[in-house]
Write a structure and sequence with these properties.
The structure holds two protein chains of two kinds. By secondary structure, chain A is of the alpha+beta class. Chain A is built from 15 helices and 15 strands. Helices cover about 15% and strands about 40% of the residues of chain B. The chains are: A alpha+beta, B alpha+beta.
Chain lengths: ~400, ~375
C-alpha cells in the first residue's frame, strides 16, 4: 500500500482568527501588519486579497492598493495558542503530525482508512473537527508525498479539499504551473525563464543531463523531480530522533554576514524558546544553507558542554555557518535546528562551571515568560537598528514577512 | 655527517622526539627531526612550534654535520632494523642508513629548509622528584577536557601555595584535585595551565626515578631530565575557579571497597548506553545496587557491600567518571560524599590523602 500524506493549511490564519473574534472585521479587507516603513503584511483576509494585497508585501504598498483596509498589528500570542489547539486536533487523526509552521502541518495518514474512511471522507471529518472546535477553516491537500500534498492544499483554497491520486501527479503539477511550484521563488523563476523554460512540461521533456547543463545540477535535480510530482526533498521526512528546527527562505538572496548573523540569532532564540516551552533539552545543533543555485549543505555539531540557552545555540550555529559559507554565493535559505532532543528541564549530565550559561538560560526564560504575558521584550542584540535595510528574520514584535518561514517540529 | 650507533639508543630518542613533531602537515619542517653530530654526540631536536624537544646521545662520529628528515619515516625505518650497530651518513640530499654488514640500506631524503630555533631557558630551574610530579599528574590528567573548544580546560592547573604543590584537572563535569605537601624548597611561581598534550608526554616519559629540573614562567614550562630537555609554550588562559565547585560540609558518606566498585563497574558497564554511559546507584541498608537503564541492548545490575547508615539514596552518574579516579586511588577503601542526588559528589580515599575527585551526577530518569 502506498503512503498517504495530508497537508493541512489554515486559511488566512491570523486574519481568520481576528475575524472570528471581532465581528467588526468580518467581510472587510483586514491586513495584519501596520502600514509603516519596513513593515510587511503577515497575512490578510480574502477580502483584502481582492485588492491585490498578499502576505510578504510591504505594508505601505498594501495601503496604497487597499486604502480602506483595516491594518492591525496582530496578536501573536493568540495565534500561537490557536495554532496549538488546531495541532491538538490534528494529532487525533494521525500519530505522525509534522508541524512545519504556525498554520500548517503534514499528517501521515497511511493506514488510517479503516478509522476515518477514504481520503476525501477523512478530510471532511478533519475539516469539520477544526471548524467545530475553533471556528476556523482549513484547506487540505492529499497525495502520496508531502511535496504534492503541499501544492494540493493550496489548489482549492480557501476551505478546500484536493486529493491527487498517484496516477495523476504529473497532470496536477502541470495545472499548478512552474510559477507556483513550492520552492521556486521570484528570482529562481526569472532565472529558469531566462533559460527559455516556461512550463513544467518543457522541463519534463528534457533529459537530466540537458537540464543540468542549462540550470546547474542542484536546480536541475530539484526540477527534474518536482516536474514529475516526485518529492524533491524540500521537506525532509521525519527522523526517529526528536528535533526542533526553523527555516527561512529569503525573497532576495543574502550576502551580508551581519544580516545572516542577526537571522541566526533570531532563529536560535526561536528554537530554544520552543525547547523551553516543550521542556526539551538538545544535544546537537545543526545549520542548513541553501544557495541561490539550490546547492544545499548541512552541518551539525554536538558540543561537549550542555546546551542551556539561546546564546550558546547562536554561537555554535554561527561557527557552523561560517565553516560552510561560500561568500561568493547568495543564500536563499537558512535553517537552524536542535537535534537529539530529550525530555527534561536540565541536562542529563550536570556541569560544574555552568553558572554563566545557567544565568543566560534564566534570562531567556524570563524574556519568554514576559513575552507570554504580553510584554514586548527582546534581547537588545535581536532588535533591528533603525537604518537596517535588508530583509531579515521576522519577529513577533516587528512583523516582517519578506520571506517564508518554515517551522518544523519533528 | 657520518655516525654509527646502536639501533636502540637512537630509536628511543627518535620515538620521544616524534611526540614533538607536527603530524598535521607532512610538508612542514615541523614534521622533521633535526640531527647534528658534534664530537661524539648526536644532538636530536624536534618542535611543532608550541613544544620543543632536544636530546643528546653518545655516537661514534666519523664526520660532523647536520640534517633534518621526516621524523615519522625515520622512526619507522629504525623500528624495522635489527638490534645491532647502524651506520648513518648523508650524501646528495639523502641520508643513507645501513646495518653493519650492509645487507639492508635505506636512502631517506633530507630537507634543506632551515630548522626552527628551539626556545632557550638558562636559569631559574627548581628540582622536584619525578615520583612526586608523576603523582600530581596521575591524579588529575584523566579529568582534563578533550574538547578543543574549551581551551581554558585543556590542561591541568599547576600552582604552589605555601609548601604545597597543587594540580587540578577538569572537563567541566568532573574535577580532580591534589594538594601535595613537599619537604623541599620550591620558589614561588604564578599559576599556570599545562597543556594536555604536554602533560601526557611527561606522563609517558616518566620512569619515576630521579628528579626533574623545572622552569616555569607565564610563557614557558621547561623540563630537564638526564640527557634531554623539553618545553611547552603556555597559553595565558585563566583556569576556572575550581575552589568554588569543590563541595564542603558534605553530610552523608558511604564507604566502599575500591576493588568491589571497580569490578562491579567493569561488569555493569558492559550493557551501559554508549551515548551517556549512565549507571544508577541505589544506596540502602549497607548495600549499593549498581544498574544500567533499559535500552535496546539490555540491562545489567550488581549489588555490592558498603558502609552506610543514612536514608536510602539514588543517584546516577557516568560510570567512567567514577572508574577513572578509582584506578589511581591508593589503599583499600574509598568514600563517596554527597548531600543531594543533583549536586556534586566527592570521592576520597579512606583514610583521606592529598587528593579528591568531584563528580557531577546525571539526571535519574
Amino acid at each position: 500500500m502506498g503512503k498517504v500524506f495530508f497537508h493541512v493549511d489554515l486559511d488566512a490564519f491570523f486574519a481568520s482568527v481576528e475575524q472570528r473574534d471581532h465581528a467588526e472585521y468580518r467581510g472587510k479587507p483586514l491586513i495584519i501588519g501596520m502600514p509603516e516603513r519596513r513593515s510587511v503584511v503577515s497575512t490578510c483576509s480574502y477580502e483584502a486579497r481582492k485588492f491585490g494585497v498578499h502576505s510578504a508585501m510591504p505594508a505601505m504598498q498594501a495601503q496604497r492598493l487597499c486604502p480602506n483596509g483595516i491594518f492591525i498589528p496582530g496578536d501573536h500570542k493568540l495565534y500561537q495558542r490557536t495554532s496549538r489547539q488546531v495541532m491538538d486536533i490534528l494529532h487525533r487523526f494521525s500519530p505522525e503530525v509534522q508541524q512545519i509552521s504556525i498554520d500548517e502541518a503534514f499528517l501521515d495518514m497511511t493506514g488510517t482508512e479503516l478509522l476515518f474512511g477514504p481520503a476525501r471522507e477523512a478530510c471532511q471529518k478533519l475539516k469539520k473537527a477544526v471548524l467545530d472546535e475553533t471556528q476556523l477553516t482549513v484547506s487540505v491537500g492529499v497525495s502520496q508525498n508531502r511535496f504534492v500534498a503541499k501544492l494540493a492544499s493550496d489548489f482549492h483554497k480557501p476551505d478546500g479539499i484536493c486529493v491527487v491520486s498517484p496516477t495523476k501527479e504529473t497532470i496536477f503539477i502541470d495545472r499548478v504551473g512552474l510559477a507556483k511550484l513550492w520552492g521556486i521563488g521570484k528570482s529562481t523563476l526569472k532565472f529558469i525563464q531566462e533559460k527559455g523554460l516556461h512550463s513544467t512540461q518543457e522541463i519534463r521533456a528534457l533529459p537530466m543531463e540537458r537540464l543540468e547543463a542549462i540550470l546547474g545540477s542542484n536546480l536541475a535535480h530539484y526540477l527534474f523531480l518536482a516536474s514529475r510530482g516526485i518529492d524533491p526533498g524540500i521537506c525532509e521526512a521525519e527522523t526517529k530522533s526528536h528535533s526542533i528546527s526553523t527555516e527561512s527562505t529569503f525573497t532576495d538572496d543574502l550576502y551580508d554576514e551581519e544580516t545572516i548573523s542577526a537571522i541566526l540569532l533570531k532563529m536560535a532564540t526561536e528554537v530554544m524558546f520552543r525547547a523551553y516551552e516543550d521542556k526539551m533539552m538538545p544535544r546537537t545543533i545543526g545549520v542548513k544553507i541553501r544557495y541561490g543555485s539550490f546547492e544545499t549543505t548541512t552541518v551539525q555539531a554536538t558540543p561537549d558542554q550542555a546546551i542551556l540557552n539561546s546564546n550558546q545555540v547562536y554561537e555554535q550555529a554561527r561557527k557552523l555557518f561560517l565553516s560552510r559559507w561560500k561568500k561568493s554565493q547568495g543564500i536563499r535559505l537558512i535553517g537552524l535546528g536542535l537535534y537529539q532532543v530529550y525530555k527534561g528541564d536540565a541536562p542529563i549530565q550536570g556541569e560544574l562551571f555552568n553558572e554563566v550559561e545557567q544565568k543566560r538560560r534564566n534570562l531567556d526564560q524570563t524574556i519568554m515568560q514576559l513575552t507570554k504575558k504580553g510584554h514586548n521584550v527582546q534581547k537588545a542584540s535581536t532588535i533591528k537598528k533603525p537604518d537596517d535595510e535588508n530583509n531579515d528574520a521576522e519577529s513577533d514584535s516587528i512583523p516582517s514577512k519578506d520571506f517564508e518561514t518554515v517551522r518544523t517540529d519533528k | 655527517m657520518r655516525f654509527t650507533c646502536q639501533r636502540n639508543s637512537i630509536l628511543n630518542e627518535i620515538a620521544n622526539s616524534a611526540e614533538f613533531t607536527s603530524q598535521k602537515s607532512n610538508l612542514s619542517i615541523t614534521a622533521n627531526v633535526y640531527l647534528e653530530t658534534r664530537n661524539d654526540k648526536l644532538i636530536i631536536k624536534a618542535t611543532d612550534q608550541k613544544m620543543g624537544f632536544s636530546s643528546e646521545i653518545a655516537v661514534s662520529t666519523e664526520e660532523e654535520g647536520h640534517v633534518s628528515v621526516k621524523c615519522e619515516r625515520f622512526l619507522n625505518i629504525l623500528r624495522s632494523l635489527p638490534e645491532e650497530i647502524i651506520h648513518f651518513y648523508d650524501k646528495d640530499c639523502q641520508m643513507m642508513i645501513t646495518n653493519d654488514d650492509n645487507t639492508i640500506s635505506f636512502n631517506l631524503r633530507t630537507t634543506q629548509d632551515d630548522f626552527p630555533e628551539l626556545l632557550q631557558v638558562d636559569e631559574a630551574f627548581f628540582r622536584i622528584p619525578k615520583k612526586i610530579f608523576g603523582k600530581l599528574i596521575d591524579q588529575t590528567a584523566f579529568a582534563v577536557s578533550q574538547d578543543e573548544t574549551k581551551a581554558y580546560m585543556n590542561g591541568t592547573l599547576f600552582s604552589k601555595e605555601d609548601n604545597c604543590l597543587i594540580m587540578v584537572g577538569t572537563d567541566g563535569k568532573r574535577l580532580s584535585f591534589i594538594n601535595q605537601p613537599v619537604d623541599f624548597e620550591i620558589p614561588d611561581f604564578d599559576d599556570v595551565t599545562i597543556p594536555r598534550k604536554f602533560i601526557n608526554i611527561i606522563k609517558s616519559f616518566n620512569n619515576n626515578e630521579g628528579d626533574y629540573d623545572i622552569h616555569i614562567d607565564q610563557s614557558i614550562m621547561m623540563i630537564r631530565s638526564s640527557n634531554c630537555e623539553y618545553y611547552t609554550v603556555l597559553q595565558n588562559t585563566p583556569f576556572p575557579n575550581y575552589r568554588k565547585v569543590i563541595p564542603t560540609n558534605m553530610s552523608n558518606h558511604c564507604r566502599i571497597k575500591i576493588k568491589d566498585m571497580d569490578e562491579a563497574l567493569k561488569r555493569v558497564s558492559l550493557l551501559v548506553d554508549s551515548k551517556f554511559k549512565r549507571v544508577v546507584m541505589q544506596i540502602e541498608n549497607e548495600k549499593i545496587l549498581i544498574s544500567t537503564e533499559e535500552s535496546d541492548i539490555g540491562t545489567a545490575k550488581e549489588t555490592i557491600q558498603c558502609e552506610f547508615d543514612g536514608n536510602p539514596f539514588i543517584c546516577a552518574l557516568n560510570y567512567l567518571y567514577l572508574q577513572a579516579p578509582l584506578k589511581v586511588m591508593d589503599g583499600e577503601y574509598f568514600n563517596i560524599w554527597f548531600n543531594d542526588p543533583t549536586k556534586a559528589f566527592v570521592i576520597k580515599p579512606d583514610p583521606e590523602r592529598e587528593y579528591l575527585h568531584v563528580i557531577m551526577p546525571m539526571q535519574v530518569n
